[in-house]
C-alpha cells in the first residue's frame, strides 16, 4: 500500500471530478488531493509560486504525511520539484505526469511553446485580474483530444481561471538538480499535444530528460487522461510509484 499525494495542473483544483483516487483506493492505496493556492471557484488569485508550494507543504504538515508518492500533473511538476526541495525526507518518489520540469532559473512559461508564451500574457491582460482562461478550442484539440465533443464541453465547464504571476516567476531549483536522493518517474501520455510532440526543447521528453535517471511509464491518452480513462491512469501511477 502506498500513500499518493496528487497535485493537479492548470485550471483544475483538488476537487476535480475524475475517478483516479477511487481506483487507487480500490487497490488499497491512501490518496490525498489538495488544492493548490489560487485555484478553484472563488479562490483569491493573488498568489506566487512560493504560495503554490507552501499550500502543498502545509497540507503535508497538517495531515502528518510521510513516505508518500508525490504526483504532479502539467505545471504541477514545477510545484512538486520545489516541494521535494523543502521536504525531501517525506517524499518517497516523485512522479511527473506529462509535467513541466523547468530548467533551473527559468519560468514555467519559458518551458511552454512559443504560442502559449505569447498568448497567455495577452489573455491575462484582458482578464481584469491577471488570470488566464484556456480557450475551448485549445482545450478540445490539444488537451482532451481523446474525448468526444460532449465530454470535452462538460469537462471544460469544470475549469477555473489560472493565475499568471506564478508562471512568469524565475524559479530557483538549485537544490532539486543538485540532489537525486528522491527517486523520480515520468508518466508520458502518447496522445497529448498540449506540448508539441517531439519538440526537442519544449516537448515532454525534453522535460523528462532534465530528471537525470528516471523511470519512464507510458500510456495512451491525452493531457487530460484522468478525465477520459482514469482506470488506466491509476494503474500507470501505481507502476510509476512503486519501489
Automatic annotation (TrEMBL):
Entry superkingdom: Bacteria
Keywords from the UniProt entry: Hydrolase
Domain AB hydrolase-1 residues, every copy: 4-234
InterPro entries on file: AB_hydrolase_1, AB_hydrolase_fold, Sec-Metab_Biosynth_Hydrolase
Gene3D superfamilies reported in the protein's UniProt record: alpha/beta hydrolase
A GO term for molecular function: hydrolase activity
Pfam families, alphabetized: Abhydrolase_6
Alphabetized PANTHER family for the sequence: AB HYDROLASE-1 DOMAIN-CONTAINING PROTEIN-RELATED, ESTERASE_LIPASE_THIOESTERASE DOMAIN-CONTAINING PROTEIN
UniProt name for this protein: Alpha/beta hydrolase
Amino acid at each position: 500500500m502506498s500513500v499518493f499525494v496528487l497535485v493537479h495542473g492548470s485550471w483544475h483544483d483538488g476537487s476535480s471530478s475524475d475517478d483516479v483516487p477511487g481506483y487507487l483506493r480500490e487497490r488499497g492505496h491512501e490518496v490525498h488531493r489538495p488544492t493548490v493556492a489560487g485555484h478553484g471557484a472563488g479562490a483569491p488569485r493573488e498568489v506566487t509560486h512560493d504560495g503554490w508550494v507552501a499550500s502543498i507543504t502545509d497540507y503535508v504538515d497538517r495531515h502528518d504525511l510521510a513516505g508518500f508518492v508525490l504526483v504532479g500533473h502539467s505545471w504541477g511538476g514545477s510545484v512538486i520539484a520545489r516541494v521535494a526541495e523543502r521536504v525531501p525526507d517525506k517524499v518517497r518518489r516523485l512522479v511527473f505526469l506529462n509535467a513541466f520540469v523547468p530548467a533551473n532559473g527559468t519560468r514555467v512559461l519559458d518551458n511552454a511553446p512559443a504560442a502559449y508564451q505569447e498568448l497567455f500574457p495577452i489573455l491575462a491582460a484582458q482578464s481584469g485580474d491577471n488570470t488566464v482562461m484556456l480557450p475551448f478550442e485549445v482545450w478540445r484539440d490539444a488537451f482532451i483530444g481523446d474525448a468526444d465533443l460532449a465530454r470535452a464541453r462538460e469537462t471544460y465547464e469544470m475549469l477555473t481561471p489560472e493565475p499568471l504571476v506564478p508562471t512568469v516567476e524565475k524559479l530557483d531549483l538549485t537544490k532539486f538538480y543538485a540532489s537525486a536522493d528522491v527517486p523520480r518517474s515520468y508518466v508520458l501520455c502518447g496522445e497529448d499535444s498540449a506540448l508539441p510532440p517531439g519538440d526537442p526543447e519544449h516537448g515532454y521528453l525534453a522535460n523528462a530528460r532534465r530528471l537525470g535517471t528516471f523511470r519512464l511509464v507510458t500510456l495512451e491518452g491525452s493531457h487530460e487522461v484522468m478525465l477520459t480513462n482514469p482506470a488506466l491512469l491509476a494503474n500507470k501511477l501505481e507502476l510509476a510509484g512503486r519501489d
